[in-house]
Amino acid sequence: MSDEEHHFESKADAGASKTYPQQAGTIRKNGYIVIKARPCKVVEVSTSKTGKHGHAKCHFVGIDIFTAKKLEDIVPSSHNCDVPHVNRTDYQLIDISEDGFVSLLTENGNTKDDLRLPTDDSLLTQIKDGFAEGKDLVVSVMSAMGEEQICALKDIGPK
C-alpha cells in the first residue's frame, strides 16, 4: 500500500471497438463489411458450394464508403468477418472556410470544425452553391472506423 497519487493520461477512446465480428454466411447485400481494412457497403454476395474440404465460400463485392473504390474478398462462410460500426449523423452547416473545412452545428449547440468538404464533385457544388445562396443546409456525415465524411445534403429552406 502506498500513498502516492497516480495520474494516467488517457489517449484512447472509451474502448469501443471500431468493428464487430459476424459470421460470413450471415452478411447480406446492402450490409457492411471490412475488406482490406476499409469499411465497405456490400453490393454483391455469392456463395459457392462446399468443396472437397467441406467449406462453403462467400464471395463479397463491396464499395468503400469513403473512397467509392470497389473491393472484393472471399471468406469461408463459417468464418467470422469484421463488420464496421457505421453511424450517420445530421449537422447544420454554419460556414465554409477557405481552406476547405466546414463548420457544423451539433445537436448540443457546439461546433464541429474538423471535417473537410466532400471530394464528390456534384455534392461539393450543391453545398457551395446552396451556401452561397444563403440556404439553411443540413449535411449527413457518415462515420466508420475512425473516419468521417460528408455523404449527403438536405435543404431545409431559406434562412
Automatic annotation (TrEMBL):
| Transferase found in the keyword field | no
Q: How is it modified after translation?
A: eIF-5A seems to be the only eukaryotic protein to have a hypusine residue which is a post-translational modification of a lysine by the addition of a butylamino group.
Pfam families from the UniProt entry: eIF-5a, IF5A-like_N
Name the Gene3D superfamilies on file: 2.30.30.30, Nucleic acid-binding proteins
| Domain Translation initiation factor 5A C-terminal per the UniProt entry, residue ranges | 85-154
Kindly list the GO molecular function terms attached to this UniProt entry: ribosome binding; RNA binding; translation elongation factor activity; translation initiation factor activity
Q: Which residues form the signal peptide?
A: none
Q: Which keywords does the record carry? A: Hypusine, Initiation factor, Protein biosynthesis
Coiled-coil spans are: none
In residue numbers, the region (Disordered) covers 1-21
What function does the entry list?
Translation factor that promotes translation elongation and termination, particularly upon ribosome stalling at specific amino acid sequence contexts. Binds between the exit (E) and peptidyl (P) site of the ribosome and promotes rescue of stalled ribosome: specifically required for efficient translation of polyproline-containing peptides as well as other motifs that stall the ribosome. Acts as ribosome quality control (RQC) cofactor by joining the RQC complex to facilitate peptidyl transfer during CAT tailing step.
**What is stated as this protein's family in its record?**
Belongs to the eIF-5A family.
- Which named protein is this? Eukaryotic translation initiation factor 5A
